[in-house]
Every structure is written in C-alpha cells, then in structure tokens.
Records
---
Amino acid sequence: MTVTDLPARASAGLQVGGLVIDPPVVLAPMAGITNRAYRRLCREAGAGLYVSEMVTSRALVERNAETMDMVSFAPDENPRSVQLYGVDPQVMAEAVRIIVDEDHADHIDLNFGCPVPKVTRKGGGSALPWKRDLFRDIVRAAVSASAGRVPISVKMRKGIDEDHLTYLDAGRTAAQEGVAWVSLHGRTAAQMYGDTADWQAIADLKALLEPLGTPVLGNGDIWTAQDALRMMEQTGADGVVVGRGCLGRPWLFGQLVAAFQGDPIPTDPTLDGVLRTLRRHAELLCADYGEHKGCRDIRKHMAWYLKGFSVRQHVRHSLGTVGSLTELDELLGQIDGDQSFNTEVGSGPRGRTSGNRRPTLPHGWLDSPYLDDDAVCSLRDAEISVSGG
C-alpha cells in the first residue's frame, strides 16, 4: 500500500481549524509514560501530535502542583496537547477554561476510554458513555468552554462489553456537540488489552460520522508502520492513535512519517542504536526530574527497549534497579550491542496484554443508560489519577 491509497484527508494530514497534524498520527496518552521526556524523544524521531499524560479536571481546577506540572510543555513543543479526565460537566468546563485562558495547550482530548477497575467501578472512563446524558453534558461543557479557541476531541472504547456497546451513539453525540475528531480504541472495557482490536468498529464509526464531517482516528494493534497503513486502508480512518506499539520504540514515529509520505520505511535499529535511545531517554528524564527520580522512572522502560535482544540476566536485573546515570552507563557497557533487531519479537505486542475480565461497575449501573441518584453517588469519587484507554 502507498500513501496514494489513503483517504484524501489523511494523506494531506489532519486539519482542524488552525491545528494541522501531518502525518495524522497521535501518541496516545499513557500514565507514567507520555511525560515531557518521552514526548521529546518521539518528536525527535518523527512528527505528529504527542498528548500529555492524562490529568483529572478536578485536580487541575484545584491547581494541584503535580497536575500543573503535567500541563507544562517544553518551549519548542508544538502543538501542545493535554488529555483531561472528568465526570462533572461544570468542573470539566472550568478545567478547559483554565487551559484555554492561560494558554496551557493547543488541543484538549477527553478521556472516555480508561478500562481499569478502580475507574470503572465508580462509573468513570469507559463506563461513562453508557450514561448518555452525562456523556453529552460533559462533551457539551468542554466544547462550550473552549468556545472554538482550542479544538476538543474525544477518545473512547467500543463500550463496556459486547452486550453494552456505546461507541456509535457516543460518537454521533460527540460529533453533534462539535468535537474536532473522535478516536476509537477497537476494544471494550471487558477486553482491556487482550484479544484483537476490532477495526471493523472503527470503519463503522467512520461511515456514521462521515456525513457529519467529523474525522475518526483508529486505535488498537498498531505495532508497526505497516499496521497503520493497513488500518487506514481497511477502515477509511482519518488518522491513527499509537499507544503500546511505541513502548521502547519511539523511532516508530519516524517510520510512520516515511510510511505516510510513501517513502521506504527505515529499518529498526541494531541494539547499539536502541541503547543510545535508552540512554537519551534516561538523560531527558534526569534533566526534567533530577537524577534520582529520573533513573527510577527509566526502569519501567528497560524490558520494552530490550525486548527480543540477548542480555545477560544479571545485567537485566541490575538495570531494573539502576540508581544513577553512571551506573546506567556501566551496565549498558556490558551489553553486546552488535545484535540485529528481532522484528518477529520486537515488533509484536508489548505492554499490557491482559483482558477478558468482567467489568467492575457501580451497583445497578447497567439498569438504565441515563443518570439516576445511585449513579450520581458513585460518580462523586470517580476522579482519580489514572489513565489508559
């Protein structure tokens, strides 16, 4: 497949108001991953829209120090994108006004895709679109508060489970309320990150929203640049959202640029190149958070960077407890970097793969697709600092 086979809007990039995303590739918000350091690493490799870690609207309104830091960007980061999570329309509106009035970002994404039990058991995340009136009110509040100054998008899943799908109704509602685009992860909350993403659902949503002029971005099982092209071809999507596929592989965004331009796709680096990227990642984290916290943070990335490579067990173990850049350099120096990238292993699924669990929901949540007193009570404690979708 070549770039000429892509939908016209996608091959020209995604253009919404004054925001141009070319290629139409979005880094999915991931808790503890898509901080300033990792976003810079991805930007250095390619191009697209790189979204912050998710922040809760209430914490932003209360100006929590950690949250305010999460919505700060490097001077050369453009466009700046923030993902908000919230369950209260009024609080969401105030959070959007803070971001827009104080010029914190150029784009805001609303999270309705988080499937983790501690979110869904309170009615948040991927459970929330089931309550149609609340979903509509939150999206309407955010779009109204922005008043066209910053585009608002929505990221969601297919639904709670196969018996309680929400994506078509929620997608249509979001489009009618004026969102810039809708991103769909082709899994339900029950699937978590297991099974195979349902790209047909993305195609169905695209067909539904095409007459309304609202772009649809597809998410799920994009492990390589070729996967992104296949998704675009099969679904007609206007762009792709990449999450777990770039863990330990930030150079994937450079491959995506080449793919969308119709150029030869660069090969994955040898282990020497991977180790240089890992070291650069650690350096950026330490520059941002200090050496102690930065080295603690890089530990979670080790298995992703080294996936498919031969590394002695004691070195792998020590990398998982690394405490300084000097120690990191010593350990990396013990690794034989003359190894080719194992495409079969390294370009496959990575990150969380758990799935097929009964969703944890508030008592009686599925009794009605509209808010009632019990649902309102459950939602009071729903704004907690977790993300993923």
---
Amino acid sequence: MAIVVLNSATSGINTRTTLTERLTASDLPIRLDPTIRSQALRVHAALRTGILEGLLPAGLKLPSSRALAMQLGMGRNAVVAAYEHLLSDGLVETRQGAGTFVAAGLPAPQAAPSPPMPPVERPDRGAFALGRTHVEPAFLARLGAAVRRRIAGASLSDLDYGDPRGSAHLRQQIARFLAVHRGIRCDPACIVIVSGTQHGLRLCANALLSPGDPVWVEDPGYDAAKTALTAAGARLIPVSVDREGIDIAAGIGAAPHARAVYVTPSHQFPTGVTLSMRRRVALLDWAQRAGAWVFEDDYDSEFRYAGPPLTALAGLSAERVIYIGTFAKTLFPGLRLGYLVLPPSAVRPVLAERAAFDRFPQKFLQDAVADVIADGTVAAHLRRMRTRYAAARELLIEALPTASGGLLHPDAPDQGLHLIAYLAPEVDPGCAPWIRDRAGIVARLLSETRLIPGGREGFVLGFSGHTVADLRDGAARLGAATQEAAAVFP
C-alpha cells in the first residue's frame, strides 16, 4: 500500500502535513485462484476472502473497476460483475460520487486460524475387518446399467417427491424373497426402505419407545445397535447369551416389563449361535404378554453353509416382531440400503417419525437394485459369494490352530461372515490386546462386545471380502503373536 505525504507546498493548502492512503490494484493483498474459470468469480472470491479475513479493513476504498481491470489484465465487465456480487453480499457499499468501500459492521476476523479438523473415523480395512464383501466387476456393470436405464427413462412421477416407504418395485421384490427364503409372509405396504440397520433401528426406537424405556440387548452383542438404542434414549438391559442364544428367563428376571428387545436370532453377533426354537417361543410369548417390540436383526442370513436358511422370528409371529434386513452383506455396504418389515400397527408411527427428518428415500438406485433382483443377477451373485466365503471360512478353521500351535480354537457356525478364535485356557485373557497389536490386525475382542465383563476371551475375525493371501498372512501373524504371548506372559 502506497503512503503519500502531502504538504502545503505541493497541495496549495496552508495546513499541517496530512497522510492519505492511495490504494492501487497492485497494492491489494489478494490472491486470485487460477482454478476458477470465470474471471468475475475469480475476482469476487479473492476480494471476498480479503474482506472476511480482515486484509481489506472496513471503510477502505477499493480501486475503480477500470483501474483494477487494467492491473489484473482482464475485462472491466468482470470487475464490475465482481463488485456487484460483493454489493449483493453486503460486503461492500457504494457512496455517490466517491466510489466503492469495504462495508462496516462485518464480523471481526478470527485472531488465529481454526484448528485442523480431526480425521473422520472409518471402519478399518486391515486384516480380519468385519463387514467387507467381494463385488465382481460384472455385477457392478449390470447394476450400473440398470441405474442408467432408470434415470434415462424417468417419468415425471419418478422425479417428484416419493413414497416414504421407498420404491414399490424393490419392496415387492423383498417381499417375494422373504416369503421363499425366510418364511415371512408380508404385505409390501408394510416394508420400509432405510439406509441401513442402524438407521432402521433408530427410526423404530424413536417412533415406538420413550426415553428411559428398558430394552433387552444381547450380551455379548452388536455395538452399533447399542449405540443406536442409547442415542434414542433407551435404557439398555444386558441379557446373557449361551449356546441356545439369548436367555429369556434371565431377561425376564432383570426387566420383566421391558419395552423392547434387540436380537440376532439366526446368527447371534458375535458368538454365532442360533436361537433355539424353545427360546424363540419363549421370547415371542413374553413379547406378547409384555406388549414389547422384538427388533430382529437378520444381518447375514443369506450366507448359510449347511442347509437352507432358517425361518425368521417374523415368520413365526408378525404381530410384535420388526424384521430388519440389509443389502450391506449380500451386495456391499456402500450401497446404503436396508429395510424394515413392520407389523401393520407400527407402520403409521414409523412413517410419522421418518417424516420429521428424512421424509422419503431416493428411488433410482432402489429400482435398479430391484431390477437386478428380478432378473436373477443378485441370486447368481449370492451363489458365487456363498462358495467364495465358505472357502475363506474353511481356510481360517484350518490355518489358525496350526499357526498358533493349538492356542487358538476357531468356532465357526454354519452361517455368517465371521468366526471367533477363542484363546486356549493356558493363555492369559489379559494378553489379548497385546496379541492383537503385535499381530497388526483389526479384529474386535470378544470382551469388547460385552456390557458385563467375564466369560471366555477371543478374537472376532471377519473373513468375507479378504483375499486368500491376506487371510493366510493374518492367520500366521495372529498365531505367531499368540504363541509369543504364551511364552512371554506365562
């Protein structure tokens, strides 16, 4: 910024020396962003930043549009447009016959730059990470083609506000699949498409429960479900799990008037046990008497390696059971598609809750997924993935005992995409975190899924979506670390 000293000899005015600031375009402390293609937007962005950061203080007179254009080597119209934009923003003001000035009364610039944002936590992608899937390029090509067809052929109704339950086409396909494979007979009108298990569970908890309501949860159990229920204000009641699944008698003893229960009956997370028929009947009887809701999370039932899929709880009684399904395991998590099968009495309150913050889900991807279900593409994909994941499961069952010298005991249920490798009794359970760190794996510890401490310790190992080489390497590292722990911490 140039500072010119004027005196009486040069000004013809017989006064004391006066300081005045004369600002030229080259003096402006601004930086033009070359990535902005529009000249007008480039100038506007530079001046706006200078004003908001306090580099151009309030009351400062800006150069004329002609002078600034000449200095910047661009057309005057671009500078005029930038000044008009700043005027509409309220960042500058014009004074008749005087020019353009930085506006007064703007927020004071921050004294120091904001601290850097912490990184957003994402599920780790290392050895044995849970929830990974394998997706073939051919399948993605078919799905992508279906999406393009749906968008290219969209009708006016497709582009308008949609049904809060989601795509009718997808709901019909889900209803057919559940009738054949899960024993659930349901009206597509009672199916609601959501973005995933947690979204669906939180939606139901907000709609059907009150803050402070007691809710049974399996212990050990699924952390994301506990998080969703806690966020909805539920009071979690841990109920132990044994070889028959959740202990109904223990739940009744702890909270006989609980308002809901969250269960994974077909493949309990994380132990992998199946809820026995005796316990299923007891659970449904209790829910009916107590007027409680049963949130049935059926997260990976499509991957059963011995016999057909089991009948869901919702297939035995639909009056109190809310069935939660997902495409995260059958296809891939990034799809962000799940669904609820609601009893008729729950449809209205759940949709009312959705209207408060979500309104309705997008339609094009849902219709495209329905298309590839209807034409058999998804069924063929599932058959191939079932074979692939079964081989990965067998690899770990064989590799872990050998790599650990018999100190890891893998327990692989007949379905699912993970297993538990239990520590042998001669290994101190307190060494498990050290073993995990030493092996460089991301597996959950069984103890980390419990609300009440106790019981055997082990590693929850995901095997889907990992290469054979990665699984072999991870098993070798985990086995070696376990043997080392047994020697170092006898």
